[in-house]
């Protein structure tokens, strides 16, 4: 029988994965000049979840993305998100690997 904390951690990874997909979609569909509250809110959530799980690099990326959203800088947010794709994928892979070991 699996440990309940392993299952809880897996749920956290799944939720983070879902929020990452939601962030990418909201960022992609956001129009310059529109309020970026949804982008900021999701970035804030991903930042907190990442840090709670120990994914500090991911937390820092989304902290910066949150700041871009607060400033209304859609181009900066899109550029940073695109240039961080590899780091985001590596962080998620590391979280999954850590969970698989337990």
Keywords for this entry:
elongated; 102 residues; mainly alpha; 5 helices
Sequence of secondary-structure elements: HHHHH
Largest sheet: none
Distance from N terminus to C terminus (CA atoms, Å) equals 12 Å
Please compute the radius of gyration using only Cα atoms. 14 Å
The number of E-state strands comes to 0
3D architecture notes:
The protein has 102 residues and is mainly alpha-helical. 82% of the residues lie in helices and 0% in strands. It has five helices and no strands. The protein has helices at 4-29, 37-52, 56-70, 74-83, 85-101. Helix 2 (37-52) runs antiparallel to helix 3 (56-70). The relative contact order is 0.16. The model has no long low-confidence stretch (mean pLDDT 90).
How is this fold's topology laid out?
Blueprint: H1 4-29, H2 37-52, H3 56-70, H4 74-83, H5 85-101
Brief rundown of the structure:
82% of the residues lie in helices and 0% in strands. It has 102 residues and is mainly alpha-helical. The protein is elongated.
